[in-house]
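dude i think i finally got it to work??
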Amino acid sequence: MIIVFIIICLVFLLLFYLFRRGWQAIPAGSPWRIVFAVVFPSGTLAFIAGRILERIGWVGTATVLVWVGSFWLALMLYFTLGAVLVDLLRLLHRWFHIFPAAVTANLPRARLIALGATLAVTALVVSLGFWNARNPQVRRLAVTIPKAVEGRTSLRIALASDIHLGILVGNSLVDDLVTTVTGLKPDLILLPGDIVDEDLEPVIRQDLGRQLLALRAPLGVYACTGNHEYIGGAEPAVRYLEAHGIRVLRDEAVALPGGIWLAGREDRMKGRFTGAERKPLAEVLRAVDRARPVILMDHQPFRLDDATRHGVDLQVSGHTHHGQLWPLSLITRSIYPISYGYGRIGGTQVYVSCGFGTWGPPVRVGNRPEIVLIEIAFSPQS
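look at this
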């Protein structure tokens, strides 16, 4: 609660700072001040209002507000960075007089130009980030597991984490996902959490499950829960996914043909929402034959050494979005041992995907959304 209180206070201070800077930049008496005074709080509250209206069934209004509010979040981030940069330049000028006299001679005009330039750059960054978020890439990863599998020497896995099906990730993006994954011809499809973006209603309304049914692979389509499944209600989300061809592994392991073991953990936030903690990994893997390849899905890439202690060969995770909006990636790098990409913790190989969809702003800056093709070569030791 203390952390939540501190975050709320920081957010209010940030909003006050942004509003004050924008207000100061607009000349006194200008009608644009009235526009600014209306637009700023409206945009700030739009996302929260849209989420609330979404839950009570005001679909049309909620959709508009969520889209507007989502873009507003991204605009506020980069407008903040721009405002801070301008204030740093003002501070440097106070010490070193870096601005020419032509600028300092007419401060109201200089402030208005700085505001216009900041808004223009912010709009450009967010526009390019939106285009980037709607154009996922295919990333290829080759790994070797030194264990034998009966009847095969390799395995192709299509991995798509953090799809966030809902208002912002609808039919068009899901169609791209299905088309791309199908074209990769995987042996196995893995969806390690946050498949649904909180509320299931927009998923049902758009009939996104119909498109998910087209995800097919010889060894199956498997998922694990993420924190967003629990935020919106894990039980109905899991029932919906399983009714549309996706097997959700909830603290359980299954043996695939050839002796490959696949396990999926419940999200680590399960206890916060249900009061019942997820099972220890030792219990999840109790029946697993460690002489065979062991692949683990765990949505949040915390305590990766736990997988190493229990003989996992490959762990796949998501959750981080690699910050989604630069410079937030600097924060995720400080929190997670692997914020994005491939790494090795002891004998366990780990891949953390930055995800396919988006949460909050439908914008990505500093990283590309992805579908990952993991090509595993089985090379048994002599």
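Residues 137-378 form a domain with the Purple Acid Phosphatase; chain A, domain 2 fold (CATH 3.60.21.10).
im so relieved honestly
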